Amino acid sequence: MSCTWAGCCSLFFNSLFLFLLLSVSLGHLVSCQEELRELREQPIDPQAEQEIIDSIEEVYFSNDSFDMVQHELEKLPPELNLQELEEYRDKLKRQQSAVSKKVADLILEKQPAYVKELERVTALQTNLQLAAVICTNARRQLSVAKEGFTEASLGLLANQRRRQLLTGLLKSLRTIKTLVKFTDIEEDYPGAIQLCLECQKAASTFKHYSCISELNSKLQDTLEQIEEQLDVALSKTCKHFDVLHYTKVQLAYKLLGKTQTAMDQLHMHFTQAIHNTVFQVVLGYVELCAGNADTKFQKMQYKDLCTHITLDSYIPCLTDLCKALWEVMLSYHRTMQWHEEHDKQENTPTPAAAAESDELVVDRSYVKKKLEHGLTRIWQDVQLKVKAYILGTDMSNFKYDDFIVVLDVISRLMQVGEEFCGSKSEVLQESIKRQSINYFKNYHRARLEELRMFLENETWELCPVKSNFNIAQLHEFKFMGQCRSPSVSPSRQAVTSSTLAQEELSLFQQYLQEGNPFEMHIEHKEEETEDVLASNGYESDELEKSVYQDYDSDSDVPEELKQDYVDEQTGDAPLKSVSRETIRSKKKSDYNLNKTNAPILTNTTLNVIRLVGKYMQMMNILKPIAFDVIHCVSQLFDYYLYAVYTFFGRNDMYESSGLGLISSRLRTTLNRIQESLIDMNAGVHGPGEDRKEKVPSPHLSQLVVLTNSGSLYGLAQRVVATESLVFLAEQFESLQSHLDTMMPAAKKPFLQQFYSQTVSTASELRKPIYWIVAAKAIDYEQMLLLMAGVKWDIREIMSQHNVYVDVLLKEFEQFNKRLGDVSRHVRIPLPVSNVLWEHCIRLANRTLVEGYANVKKCSNEGRALMQLDFQQFLMKLEKLTDLRPIPDKEFVETYIKAYYLTENDMEQFIKNHREYSMKQLANLVNVCLGSHINKKARQKLLAAIDDIDRPKR
Q: Could you tell me which residue ranges the Syndetin C-terminal domain spans (predicted)?
């Protein structure tokens, strides 16, 4: 009823206002009526009238604030013309008249409707007056009812009921009021959510009341705020995992029934944490190195930011980057551990567990699968971030040690990835492989050029190292003696037994509570503490000195032997009980009496060994480039071998001797090296693509003289060069098993071929190199001249040998003495002295046969004299050398005995003994059988000699 009455009053007052408005307007309209009627009565063409109206400027229709007078005055020209002004005034009057007439027509047209509406307003006024009286009476009656009944009775009941309801919620309201403050201080998210849920439950009972409904809405808002704070708390576990904190967060999500949502959010936070962490680490270094407050770096993409890292800050930034990523992965690892332990506890049979709902089982299964799947996803994110960092800088100009540290850090990171999720880290491997191959090609090219420079400046003097020298003593090979995974820094010292036990644990077990696996690169600095060189070329071991101090007066033993002798077999210093006879017994044919049995090597050899160690470090840390590195290692050895052969063994003059100085295997190896590694056209053409991997052939230093007979044609330098190569080959042999373990299975045949066809041929270079010395050390031509003057067609048996034998033996004695002189400067190992003696004896024996083959006439007694001469030579020679058996002894004896063969035996002899030259065989036929066979038989035997193809031996 009240609503109806209010509506009626509103309608009444609105109508009254309209009525008054219309009354005021009516008087004015009546006064103008006559004027309007006059305007309408004036005859005018409607079309002309419309044209006049259309000619009015639009600005007159714009708005009520338009100042027409000002507008017309502004339009006046600078110079006024009365006639034009009058014409323009008349135009305006015509426009005004047309508009006025148009308005008058519209007013008169609407006048009947206006009169009718005015009558309705008058009737409405009457009705409104009646409604006002009715409303006044109704309000008076309602006021009486309110005072007499509602306020006295129903109001009291309603207030009492409301009081009871609000009293029950008072405690919860007070708790909710302090809820946010309580949560911030204690971080008791489960307790806060529990209270809020209880309040919501209580409020839902009375939600039909408006005040309670509003309270329920506020509680829902509070719960959402708690959930937001809970999400922030969850994100904190991604970098620093805390068991108590995470337990509260998980319990809170469980109360909310959002366990699965929490796990989805957690993985999103881990992804975000990885991105934010790496970006902040790299940004910090970039801004630090930039040295200004320019904020342009903060707006860059992470990939672009990585390209601004300087070379000096690259390793520290990489280390910090890996440390930060380790913290994230460790937090994820500990998160998984928490869930595994939590699941075990919940799986323990209890009455509560028996009543576990299917929903909880589903949640646990979902969480487990999500965590397992997240391992790969998180590691993939880590790999991509580190890959962008690795490829953002060109490492080709890095120092070797710095690059090794980079490889070491990445290798350790890959080990983390393998333990984290069993990944082989293909992304990291591929990126670091690209950088490594690029770096290693440049590095190896520079090292080959450096090796050529070393070889061309090498004077082939001994590098004085200790007698117990071993490559394991070099820093470059320290990593081989460490029982560790390949990723541990090569600069670390030998590990202790306790460290070995620790290495058996995974990285996540070692650094679960504290520490970081990437901190070792700062803690363990490489210390150059090598001690492989002998003091002033001699050992400083007090034990060795004490052994020989009792023999200082022994004039038979060289002074150096008294200081430096060690056991040849073991390389160890002898005990004090070593007898003088034992020391003297070493004199006989081993020309190493003046030195210990220390390795023979040069500075260049040591440099090559160090390079091999560095290359192997790279292989050990980064196995994907193992084949490329081993191929480069083989080139180092190839180039060294080729240089030694070029300097000391290449001499076409003696290769036609028939002694087979260079085996087919060695010749094949040398040809292969020359074709694949040696740039024979260096300096002739520009650097073509096909010669980028080749090196110019080295040239022997001008300081090395190989033509002086006094030094046995550079025998000392030849020994140092050849034996250093043999020593290098021995070191390669000792490394074969280690290289084999790092070589990919598909490439192992290359390694086997390298060892079987190249490394094993190093000792074979002794023959051609020492052959040159042996061929020049003894005057074989003089012996031929002396033999040519001997008469062999004697008729009686001689008891005295010829003079040429004594001359030849004297040459050998002189050769032996000169060997001893050389040995005072360079130890001549037994294999070297054996090769030298073998060459000299072989050449002497072949010279004897050649001298016997030059004989024009010879009797049986002459042949007996030949045997006597040769036996005398052998007897004296055996006192000069320990070489047994005497080389080519049968070669001479067989030739002398062939004098006694018959025609048929001679034919068979020619077929079986191709080691003799055609001239030597022809001499046997002409001289030995000439008087016993006819001309036809002789021609037959000579033809047989011509038909035989005799390959050089």
A: 712-946
* Residue the block writes with tokens 């054996």: 834
207 shares a domain with 328: yes
Strand, helix or coil at 180? helix
Amino acid at 226: I
pLDDT for position 42: 58
In angstroms, the CA 266 to CA 234 distance is 7
Residue pair 777/818 in contact by the 8 Å Cβ criterion: yes
> Which one-letter DSSP state was computed for residue 951?
-
With the C-alpha atoms ordered 480, 485, 486, 492, is the resulting torsion angle positive or negative? negative
C-alpha–C-alpha distance, residues 754 and 633, integer Å:
10
Q: Report yes or no: 764 and 640 within 8 Å, Cβ to Cβ.
A: no
Q: What is the pLDDT of residue 255?
A: 79
Query: Same structural domain for residues 827 and 925?
Result: no
DSSP state of 815: H
Q: Alpha-carbon distance 699 to 646, whole Å? A: 8
CB 678 within 8 A of CB 698: no
Res 561 pLDDT > 50: no
Q: Which of 740, 766, 792 is the last residue of a domain?
A: 766
- Among 766, 788, 820, where does a domain finish? 766
Instruction: Say yes or no: 738 and 854 in one domain.
Output: no
Q: Which residue blocks in 626-714 are alpha helix, DSSP H? A: 626-644, 664-676
Which phi and psi (to 5°) does residue 358 adopt? Answer: -65, -30
Q: Which range, of 331-335, 514-518, 531-535, 582-586, averages the lowest pLDDT?
A: 582-586
- C-alpha distances (whole Å) from 478 to each of 209, 296, 743 are 83, 46, 20
Per-residue CA distances from 408 to 310, 415, 525, 936 (Å): 19, 10, 13, 84
Q: What pLDDT is stored for residue 540 in this prediction? A: 41
Average pLDDT over residues 843-851: 92
| Sign, Cα dihedral of 610, 612, 615, 617 | negative
Looking at residue 189, the DSSP 8-state letter turns out to be H
Instruction: Answer yes or no: is 162 within a domain.
Output: no
Beta-bridged to residue 535, according to DSSP, are 538
Q: For 158, how many CA atoms within 13 A lie in the half-sphere containing its CB?
A: 7
Please determine, for residue 576, whether its predicted confidence score (pLDDT) is greater than 80: no
- HEC assignment per residue over 389-436: HHHCCCCCCCCHHHHHHHHHHHHHHHHHHHHHHCCCCHHHHHHHHHHH
Task: Flag whether 659 is in a domain.
Answer: yes
Q: Total structural domains in the chain? A: 4
pLDDT digits (tens, 9 = 90+) for 801-813: 999 999 999 999 9
Q: Which two tokens stand for residue 763?
A: 């000792």
Residues 143 and 125: their CA atoms lie apart, in Å, by 28
Residues 755 and 792 in one domain: no
- DSSP three-state, residue 828: strand
Do 783 and 711 fall into the same domain?
Answer: no
Assigned token pair, 715: 């025998």
Closest CA to 837 of 892, 779, 878: 878
* 775 CB-near residues (< 8 Å, 6+ apart): 654, 657, 839, 843
Bridge partners of 465?
A: 533
Complete DSSP assignment for 287-333 = HHHHTS--GGGGGS-HHHHHTT--HHHHHHHHHHHHHHHHHHHHHHH
Q: 785 and 820 share a domain?
A: yes
Within-domain flag for 804: yes
Task: State how far the alpha carbon of 244 is from the alpha carbons of 112, 228, 231, 241, in Å.
Answer: 90, 19, 16, 9
Quote the Cα angle for 937-942-943, to 5°: 95
Q: Which domain holds residue 646?
A: 458-480+598-679+702-766
From first CA to last CA, the distance across the chain in angstroms is 140
Q: Can you read off the two tokens belonging to residue 65? A: 């604030």
Q: And the tokens for 44? A: 């005018």
Q: 927 and 806: one domain?
A: no
Average of per-residue pLDDT values in the chain: 77
d(CA 925, CA 931): 10
Residue 293 covered by a domain? yes
